[in-house]
Design a protein that fits this description.
286 residues, alpha/beta, Rossmann fold, 2 domains, six-stranded parallel β-sheet, 9 helices, globular, NADP, EC 3.5.4.9, Aminoacid_DH-like_N_sf, one-carbon metabolism, methylenetetrahydrofolate dehydrogenase (NADP+) activity
Amino acid sequence: MNMAQRLDGRRAAERVQEELKRRVEELASRGILPKLVMLVSEADEVSLGHVRRKARFARGAGLVAEIRTFRAAEGPDALRSAIDRLNEDDEVDAILVQLPLPAGWDEGEILRRVRPDKDVDGLHPENLGQMAYGLPRVWPCTARGVGELLHQHEIGVHGKVACVIGRSPLVGWPIAQWFMAHGATVVQCHRQTPSVAVWTRQADIVVSAAGAPGLVGAEEVRPGAVVIDVGLTYTADGPRGDVDPGVRERASWLTPVPGGVGPMTVAMVAQNAFDLCAMRRGGGRG
């Protein structure tokens, strides 16, 4: 029995970093050094781990990457002020506000405060609107990471049927928009979808971003489908994705968890930061 080939996000991210380093060097030769600043709650160890990985990757590609922490006790006004200062700092090209924010804070209002042309996550309403037209400044990081992973493995999406499970504004919805912009027919499933399997069985490409371990089983995927597991849940048995391991016996390609989409999301933070710098200070997209 043939087993699914591995969509290796770690190796793909390394390739992104290698190419990005070359492009950063080209900009640096003109006196321009891309700078990314990430804001994160000092009390959230999980989020701190995420931003440290993002900073490490970006620095490895030659970008300036800073982590600045804030305290929940200071209230959201302190974070608003920090964002305002970064918006006005001409040396800062990209701003990331690491979610989640402390309980009770209005995440939407905070994200809207980031200047659209410095919004590395692409989540400002202006950027989301441009994305709906298929013309974003930058694609949100996970959506772009999924696209780059498929591109590196020469998996085309034009004319294919893609089923995306999940519709969050950070992950599921942007992924669906990316597939539509690149010529796929998209079915988007969510909590109110009566039978997700009806749609996944028809899809050439299945993307699950629900955060529900084992949601997609082997019998819910057509033979030969490309399956991308964006979900990541930490359980007593370790990290689990949305896709049951048995899917590897039916799919043609499958992302591992961890080591699939996660490294690509991290890589695209640096790529987006570079592109925002190139557009704002370097005369065009990188």
